Amino acid sequence: MSTKTVFIQGPISSEFIGQSIAKHQSKTTIGAHNIFLGQVRADVIDSQTVAAIDYTAYEEMADEALSAIREKAFAQFDLICMHIYHSLGTVKAGEICLFVFVSATRRKQVYEATATIVNWIKTDVPIFGKEIFENSTFTWKKNSL
């Protein structure tokens, strides 16, 4: 299975998401899609508001982990298509940083697969976020399920 490019510099645009959906209209065996969009929150931590997250990754290791997730997902669920995109660089509060797009013949598969895939990404992929506060200080983000 070939490794796909999953990293996008900066936020993931609504145009990119829309184009991804449109590309699947010709795949008429698909009966259901499910999409997860991760958005940067303006969390308040120790009285400081998060203005953005600066994402970095060990890209080679992350690509390997994402490829393994892809293989596990196709083995565990009856999927037709699966796409994962994650931001690198600065993503402001309110912008999209993670886009998971799953397609199958039936809706039950896409719901279960999407939740499982997002959890695997959070626990298994070496992507790191530095939360940048409005006053330009920062802290390293801790992933939570």
Q: How would you describe this structure to a colleague?
A:
The chain has helices at 14-22, 59-76, 107-124; strands at residues 7-9, 32-39, 44-45, 48-57, 79-92, 96-104, 127-133, 138-140. The protein has 145 residues and is α+β, with helices and mostly antiparallel strands. The protein has one domain (7-140): Aldehyde Oxidoreductase, domain 3 (Alpha-Beta Complex), CATH 3.90.1170.40. Strands 1, 2, 3, 4, 5, 6, 7 and 8 form an 8-stranded mixed beta sheet that branches. α2 runs antiparallel to α3. The longest helix has 18 residues, at 59-76. The model has no long low-confidence stretch (mean pLDDT 93).
Judging from the principal axes of the Cα atoms, what is the shape?
Answer: elongated
What is the gyration radius calculated from CA atoms?
A: 16 Å
Q: What is the second-level CATH architecture? A: Alpha-Beta Complex
Q: What proportion of the residues form beta strands (DSSP E)?
A: 35-45%
Largest sheet, in brief, is: 8 strands, mixed
> How much helical structure, as a percent, in the residues?
25-40%
| Tally of structural domains | 1
Integer average pLDDT: 93
What structural class do helix, strand and pairing data support?
alpha+beta
CATH superfamily: Molybdopterin biosynthesis MoaE subunit
Identify low-pLDDT runs: none
Q: Between the first and last Cα atoms, what is the distance in angstroms?
A: 28 Å
The CATH topology is: Aldehyde Oxidoreductase, domain 3
Subunit structure: Heterotetramer of 2 MoaD subunits and 2 MoaE subunits. Also stable as homodimer. The enzyme changes between these two forms during catalysis.
GO biological process, one term: Mo-molybdopterin cofactor biosynthetic process
Family: Belongs to the MoaE family.
EC number: 2.8.1.12
